[in-house]
Design goal:
The structure is a single chain. The chain is mainly beta. Helix content is 8%, strand content 26%. Strands 2-1-5-3-4 form a 5-stranded mixed beta sheet, with no helix packed on it. A hairpin with a 2-residue loop joins β3 and β4. The longest helix is centred in the middle third of the chain and has 7 residues. It is globular and about 30 Å long. The model has no long low-confidence stretch (mean pLDDT 89).
Amino acid sequence: MKVDVKLFGTLAQSVSGPILAHYPQGIRAGSLLEVELPENSTLADLVAHLSLPTEELKLTFVNGRPQELDYRLAPGDEVGIFSPVGGG
């Protein structure tokens, strides 16, 4: 199944693995990624697929609603993943 993913904050810089072959110019924060996952995948599966460090995750949204990592994704879902924001 395919889901659309946007990574915010520093997470785009953390993506690694085979998905990078689909984005030769690199991945930038806020860029839309189309990700292919097995049926019945969860947000945790998506995070693992993108090789994102879980300690850098702050918020995860699916179709505009906050969800936990055990949330089961459906084809066509729109996922937003945010890292903590710092500043002063």
